[in-house]
Specification:
- The protein has 181 residues and is of the alpha+beta class.
- Helices cover 16% and strands 35% of the residues.
- The longest helix has 16 residues.
- The chain is elongated and about 60 Å long.
Length: 181
């Protein structure tokens, strides 16, 4: 999912041109020839949780594209004016309707080819009752051996889950930084 290049200035609406800005920048940017605004295009942050109830992990079946009908951890795009943990908590409530206590930061996954960074926190569920929002068909708890690995929506989620279960078996959790090409 690549974002299309910026076509018009967000300040004045004039068609932008891609060139090196006059300020010494070394990357081509969308520059407005009328008002000279330089538009920086930055990665999108995806934030979520790994909610746990006993030995089970909560997954959500997607009711939206991309990957409609596939399973994922509750996560989504971070909004302006919220912290990473606030966004992860909001997404967990929106997608799963879960009651939980936020845990430690767990993983950061860089996906430069699509301009995204995915970040996950561990979370302790306070109930095994869920009220999924419109983006989720079903929210369900899975034991590790029952995870539908072939039906996981995103590689970032699969890698985060693999590291989570490996850490759990080892008896201690680390912070993971991963790159997916």
């Amino acid at each position: 999912m690549h974002r299309p290049p910026l076509k018009h200035c967000r300040s004045c609406g004039t068609a932008v041109v891609y060139r090196l800005p006059d300020d010494g920048d070394t990357k081509q940017r969308a520059v407005c020839p009328a008002c000279h605004t330089v538009h920086y295009e930055n990665p999108l942050n995806v934030v979520g949780t790994i909610p746990v109830w006993g030995d089970k992990v909560l997954l959500c079946k997607r009711n939206i594209e991309p990957r409609f009908g596939k399973w994922t951890l509750p996560a989504g795009f971070m909004e302006l004016h919220e912290t990473v943990s606030e966004g992860a908590a909001r997404e967990t409530v929106e997608e799963a309707g879960a009651q939980f206590e936020m845990g430690e930061f767990f993983s950061l996954v860089n996906i430069p080819r699509v301009g995204q960074v995915h970040m996950f926190y561990r979370a302790q569920l306070l109930s095994d009752q869920f009220a999924p929002g419109f983006e989720t068909i079903e929210a369900r708890l899975f034991d590790e051996q029952d995870i539908p690995w072939d039906e996981i929506a995103f590689k970032t989620v699969a890698e985060t889950l693999k590291h989570f279960f490996a850490d759990r078996r080892a008896g201690h959790y680390r912070t993971h930084v991963l790159d997916i090409q």
